[in-house]
Every structure is written in C-alpha cells, then in structure tokens.
Amino acid sequence: MATLDEAVPPGEVQDAPADPRRRDYLAIGAVAWAGVGAGVIALPLINQMSPSADVLALSTTELDVSAIQPGQSIKATFRKQPLFVRNLTPKEIAEADATPVSDLRDPQTLEDRTKPDKKNWLVTLGVCTHLGCVPLGAGEGENKGPFGGYFCPCHGSAYDTAGRIRSGPAPTNLTVPEYEFISDTTIRVG
Amino acid sequence: MSFPWAKQYEPKHPLMKWVDDRLPLPRFVYNAVGAGYPVPRNLNYFWNFGVLAGMFLALQIVTGIVLAMHYAANAGIAFDSVEHIMRDVNAGWFIRYAHANGASMFLLVVYIHIARGLWYGSYKAPREMVWLLGVVIFLLMMATAFMGYVLPWGQMSFWGAQVITGFFSAIPGVGETIRVWLLGGFAPDNSALNRFFSLHYLLPFVILGVVILHIWALHIPGSNNPTGVEVKSEQDTVPFHPYYTAKDGVGVGVALLIFAALIFYAPNLLGHPDNYIPANPLSTPAHIVPEWYFLPFYAILKAFTFDFLWIPAKLWGVLAMFGSILLLFFLPWLDTSPVRSANYRPTYRIFLWILLVDVLVLGYIGGAAPTPAVILIGQIATIYYFAHFLLILPIVSMMERPRPLPNSITEAVLAGKGGTSPAQTALATE
Amino acid sequence: MVRILGGLVGLGFVLALLLGIYDTVSNWISNPPQATAEHEFHEHPRKAGFSFEGVLGKYDNRQLQRGLQVYKEVCAACHSLRLVSFRDLEAIGYSEGQLKTIAKGFQVPSINPETGEAATRDGLPSDRFPLVYANDVAARAANNNAIPPDLSLMAKARHDGANYIYSLLTGYREQAGYKNEKGEELLKQFPETKTPEGLHFNPYFATLNLAMAPPIQDGQVTYSDGTAATADNYAKDVSAFLMWSAEPKMGARKTAGFASLIFLVIFCFLAYGAKKQIWRGVKD
C-alpha cells in the first residue's frame, strides 16, 4: 500500500484505515450477503429438477377391477410404473398363509399387505425391489417362479403369492402402494 | 505479461501451495483477476461493464442448461414445452423469464462496453487483438440470441427464422441453395428448429472460449483507462483485487437490481406479444420486428430500397447490414489518431456523440412501421453510420488537433481529471 | 490501404443510399401515403381497472371464478383453453372436490377400453381443458371460415391483453354513422370499409371487422355472488380470468420480486460501503 500513499501528495493523505474493523465489516458483510443471495438463488435452480406439477397431478390412478377373475391379474400404470392387481384364488391365499412369517426376509403376513375383507386383492407395484425390473407373473402364461407369485428374470428374485420375496437378491417384498377401495369394484391408488 | 511491480502469488495455506506447485491455477487466477493484476487507478464505472458481461454470460449458461432439461426441440411440441416450463416446472417461470431477460441484459451491457471502448479508444494499439476478439464475441452473441429467440416456436420465432435465413437468399446464384441448406427444408420447420437448438447450446461455450482469449489478450498490455495514457509507473496502478473487485461489486448490485425489476415486474416488456401465438406458417404477423438489440441493424437492412450498380436493393441491404458490423474489425486502422481517449479529442468527440444518437435513431426506425418519413430518416441515419466509420473517422483523425495529454495517469488524477465520465468532461470543457 | 478501400466502400453505401433517398422522396411526392381506415379508426384498449395491475396488484379470486363461469357458459362453445389444466383452478380458490366437479363437466378424449376406438370420458383434475374442434378444418367449417383462437395465452398475445379483451368484448358498435374521437365518420371517409356480410364491426379489432358476433348480453350469465349481471361485468371478469390463465404465476412472481428487490438494495448499499472503505486513501 506504500505506493498508494506516495501517490497522494502530503497534506491530502487521509489517515489510512483508522478503523480497520469497520472496513472489514462492510466488505465481509457484502460478500456474506452475496453468498446468502447465491444460496437462495440456487434453490429454484436445484428444485426445478423435482417432479413438476403435471407429473404430481398424475399421482392417483383409479382402476375398475370387476373384470378380474380369481387367479387372474392385470397390469396397470401408477406414476408411470407398472402396477399389478391380482385376484388371488383361495388356494393361493392358503399357500401365503401357510408360510411361517419368521422364515421371511421381509416378514409380513398377507393381511398386512391387503385390505380387510379384501384379502384376495393383492395390489403391488410391478417393480422388483432389487434393481427395478418388471417381474413376470402378472401376464397370461408368464413364468410365476418357484413360489407361484412373481419372478424377476433380470437377477432371479422369486416372490410368492403374497408378493413377498422368497429367494434371490431382492431385499424387500414388492411394494404395496397406498390405495383404497372406493367401491366394491373400484380402487384408487395414490 | 505484466508490470514488473505486479504482486507475486504467495500461497497462504499449505494446501494451496501443494495445488499451485502441481497445477498453477491459483496463481493464474491471482494474476488474471486477483491482486496480481495491476490496473490503472483511474478507471471509472464504465469499466464495470466487462465484468458485468461476464456475469450475464455465466447466468445465461446456467439458466440455459436448466431450461434445456425441460425444453423439447421439436416443432410439434416446442411451444407447449415452453408453456410447460412456465406453468408446471418448479420455479420454471422464474428460470425462463431470467433467461429471456438475461439475453437483453447481456446485450445491453455489451453495447455499453463497446461504447466505452469507442469513447476511450480501447481498440487502438496495442489492444487491437482485444478489440478484434470482442467483435467476434459480439457476432457470436448475435447468432446465439437469434437462434435462442427461435426456440419457443411462436409466431415471431418462426417469422424471425424465415426472414433472417432469407438474408442468405440475397447472395447471387447460390443464395437460395444456401438458405435451403441452412434450414434443411424450404421453410423453417423441425429440422431448422433442431439445428438451431443444437447450435444455441453450443455457441455460448464458444463465446466463453473467446472471452478467455479476450481477457488473455487484454492482460498483455493491461487495461486502458479514461486518459488513454499508458501506465508508466507503479503509482499509476492499484491491484485489481480488492480495489476493482469492490468497485465491480457496486456495478453488479445495480445491474442485478435492474435485472430483477425486469424479471419480476415487467418480464414481457422487451418481448413481443406475437410470440405467445404458436408458429403458423400460413400467416405472418402484421408487424414483424426483431428483438430490440437487433433493431439498429434491421433499420440498416430496410434503408436500402433502390437497385444500384447492378446490385439489387435486397443484396445492398444484406451487405450493408453485415458490413455495419464487419467494419468494426477495421476500426483500429481506420482511426489513425495517436490519442486514444475522446476526452482529449475535441472534434472526434462531437462525431462520436452524433454516432451514439444516430444508433438510437436507427433503433427507433428499426422498430417503426415503414412510412415514407420513417424510411427517409432511416436512410439518412444509415448514411451517417457508414460515413462516420469509413469517411469521417479517417479524415478527423488526420486533421484533428488533440488537447495536450497529461504526462501520466497519476498527474491526471491529482489534477482532478482522472476518472471523469464523458458527460462530466463535456461539461467541463465547453 | 484499409482507409482507401474503406473510403470507397463507404462512398458506395452512401451513393446507394442517396439514390434511395431520392427514390423515397420522389415516391412520397408522387404517391403521398393514404391514411388507412385502420390507422384512423382503430381504437386502443380502454382501461378496465383490474386488481392485478401495478407492482402490488393481485388477482381477485372471486372475479376469476366469475370469469371462469363466463368462459364455461359463453366462450367455451367455440374457444379452447388447451394449456390450462383443471387442477390449476385450485389456484383461484377451488377445493379438490370442486375441481373434480368442474372437470366432470367437460368431456375429454379417451379410448374405449373394449374396442380401442376413440371415445370420450368425464374430465379429471389432471386433464387439460379439451379442444373444442378436432382440427382447424373442423373449426373453420363450423365458424364461417374463421378459426376461433385458443384463449390460454390470449392476454399475453396482444398488446395490453386483458384490457384488449375487455374492450373487444364490449366494443361492438353500429357501423353506420360511427365516428371516432375526432368526429370523423368512418363510412364517409372510407366507404369501402363497410363491414362485409358475416363479419362484425368493432373498432378495437386490428382490422375493424371480425368474425365473432357480439358474444355477451346483459343477463346472459347468472352470477351467484350478487355481482350485477351486466355485459360489462362479464367482459371484465372473463378478461381477468384469461389474464390469470395466461400468467398463472403472477402472484408468486411479484412476491419473489419484492423480496429480491429489498435484498438487492441492501446489497447495493453494502457493496458501495465496502467500495468506499477499500478505496479510502486512494484518489482515483
């Protein structure tokens, strides 16, 4: 800073920083304030990647299940993902109930995974909990795997008639989305 | 690359030293925009505009990348995808308005930056390369801005694309072939939209590269200053940081204030209502005009209405419009005066003021409906534009008797004339 | 060399322009420009006095709801609102249940699940307002060769859009004997502009004659909130609604703007203070 002082003729020299703290205070304040602004402005630039309003608006799906006979299932879509709705036969229900819960990787009973008095309606996402492939078993004639439920061909996860993981790498049972019966034959998912 | 008294980088933290020993990026930044770059002490606020231009380039790139995550460059859905951004994407309206108005702010700031260079002779030796690279940046910006305006695929987008690619059809013989090649069709459509999007995404990064060259070239001689007198001693300079970072901070605040006022309270002020109508190849809007920043050049295009010397009026117009920008490349050699700053050039200064008014008049004419009076004023203003650069400037710079220059920047500063603005000087010397 | 070549190029441009000036002036004298009916008789929009104007202006939800009612009962017969979703109406004060009811009132395109043929179903909140005509040809055929434009962005697609819509809707006049503010009579000055069969005279429309017949009359729509059932109110309400449909985020925009401006003003003072402090003792 010596050069600057030399540049000003004697007498005109304003006493160099008499109160250095105040000078720092303003500069630091301005930079900090700008930092706050940059942080706030970053929020919308990050949040723009979250689902947009039109995507969120599609987050409920209503389904008419009256045409599904026992033993059949349908594939629908929920949030652009496959959704399996399966009408279980009494035999399948019995198989699911016969399995000891303590043997399961993700212990849940069929009751936990269905609605009261609607135990035959198994509603799950058709997304393997391993790495997201669509398991087989919901379509006509597809391989239902060794446990009679669903079978994921990507890495060999096998689900039982309650959509519970029984063998293979998947960590949890097929996800049961939030849904409700709004009439005896109509469900609303989401 | 710098003055002998420039401060040397000394890493304060061992980690920075470790990095600097292996990749001297901290040193590079320090010497470019840190305390290691000595800058004339008398720069006025007009010298903020280089940094402001850099800031708006950065903002445009950031908001543009984000918009490209939602935009669909397909003629069938481009318009609706922009409305999707405006209505459904989180804060999409903010990002889109920031990008649209950011383009205007960027051009505005660059125009002031160019005017600063004209007034203070920043294009003269030894800074010709800085100026030439600046003109390249300006041309790239114009191309980028035009292609960006096409992307929403509204009526003005479509007809802008039609008219501007129509320039190329003025080239004798091969013009129409070139136009069809540029569009990938006989009229603007999906193929044109897609390539414009691709180039609109690419060119800003090319601009960024040329900006780096522009700053590199600037650092060889160092910054010009309002006296136009070269730096002679250490007394004439202060380190860029903290002196000019602090001064630029003020400019950044004011520029962002204006920017925010536009985005939040007048987001469509500089746009055209017709661009909220989806592109319709069967109906031209009643009054098509480009964005405000192209209006002076549009006025030059429209001024040529007469076939002359076997060259049709249309080709004259296109040649003149491109010529009006390309002649800037020759400016360092058209102006032979050894004095840089118009503060010391009493005659040149008058003509430069006339030029600034002339460009504003051209801007008005460019946006006005073509009545005979408007055409006539446009023709007169265009004559002055070319005469200024190609006829008046070379003659004035030979004939003019400049006022005595100060011996050094410091002398000028101590006499109280260091960083005065043009208006102040004009008043003081009348 | 550069200067000589530049001078020649400059002289070339100047000569071409001087000839152009001669051309312009001689044309001007031999064919003085004629005043056009559009220029002399086209009116700029009248101000409706909307609540959303100005820096602090806000939408009035009750007005927007009335505007929606006018749109549904009058405009929707011919004009679509294709960029607006029913769910968007939550922003003008409807509950989820009300949204569903409104959506149900519209039939949207669908597919018959049995046969795969095109069909329609009741609208859902996630649907957009449906198109009125399948395509432009159908629109023309039904409307005397004029296409009723989509209204979603109309208030931004015209200069001073909300006031324009208001003025247009209330601006139909008897053409015979129509005088502008200067007292000139249209048909005396420009007899050739007599409104053709099938069009309607309206000085707020750019070409003075438009295909849309006067759409609203007093008493046509019954408001439930006690607002007087006048054509002027209908026009004002539907214009406000269309401003909302064109710019639904205006409220958020102005709020964010207020905070931003305060933030930036404080930053400007801080930056200026910091600059002053740093430059203290340095004469520039």
UniProtKB/TrEMBL annotation, chain A:
GO terms for cellular component: plasma membrane. It is found in: Cell membrane. The chain crosses the membrane at residues 25-46. Its EC number is 7.1.1.8. It catalyses: a quinol + 2 Fe(III)-[cytochrome c](out) = a quinone + 2 Fe(II)-[cytochrome c](out) + 2 H(+)(out). Its cofactor is [2Fe-2S] cluster. GO terms for molecular function: 2 iron, 2 sulfur cluster binding; metal ion binding; quinol-cytochrome-c reductase activity. It comes from the Bacteria. It is an enzyme of class 7 (translocase). Binds 1 [2Fe-2S] cluster per subunit. Keywords: 2Fe-2S, Cell membrane, Disulfide bond, Electron transport, Iron, Iron-sulfur, Membrane, Metal-binding, Translocase, Transmembrane, Transmembrane helix, Transport. SUPFAM superfamilies: ISP domain (SSF50022). It is a single-pass membrane protein. Residues 90-188 form the Rieske domain. Belongs to the Rieske iron-sulfur protein family. Component of the ubiquinol-cytochrome c reductase complex (complex III or cytochrome b-c1 complex), which is a respiratory chain that generates an electrochemical potential coupled to ATP synthesis. The main subunits of complex b-c1 are: cytochrome b, cytochrome c1 and the Rieske protein. The Rieske protein is a high potential 2Fe-2S protein. This is Ubiquinol-cytochrome c reductase iron-sulfur subunit.
Automatic annotation (TrEMBL), chain B:
InterPro entries: Cyt_b/b6_C, Cyt_b/b6_C_sf, Cyt_b/b6_N, Cytb/b6-like_sf, Cytochrome_b, Cytochrome_b_C_euk/bac, Cytochrome_b_N_euk/bac, Di-haem_cyt_TM. Binds 2 heme groups non-covalently. Heme b b566 binds at residues 113, 214. PROSITE patterns: CYTB_CTER, CYTB_NTER. Pfam families: Cytochrom_B_C, Cytochrome_B. Residues 230-407 form the Cytochrome b/b6 C-terminal region profile domain. PANTHER family: CYTOCHROME B. This is Cytochrome b. It comes from Sphingomonas turrisvirgatae. The lineage of its organism: Bacteria, Pseudomonadati, Pseudomonadota, Alphaproteobacteria, Sphingomonadales.
From TrEMBL, chain C:
GO terms for molecular function: electron transfer activity; heme binding; metal ion binding. Gene3D superfamilies: Cytochrome c-like domain, Cytochrome c1, transmembrane anchor, C-terminal. Its cofactor is heme c. Binds 1 heme c group covalently per subunit. It is found in: Membrane. Keywords: Heme, Iron, Membrane, Metal-binding, Transmembrane, Transmembrane helix. GO terms for cellular component: membrane. Residues 62-169 form the Cytochrome c domain. InterPro entries: Cyt_c-like_dom (IPR009056), Cyt_c-like_dom_sf (IPR036909), Cyt_c1 (IPR002326). The chain crosses the membrane at residues 256-274. Heme c binds at residues 75, 78-79, 212. This is Cytochrome c1. It comes from Sphingomonas turrisvirgatae. The lineage of its organism: Bacteria, Pseudomonadati, Pseudomonadota, Alphaproteobacteria, Sphingomonadales.
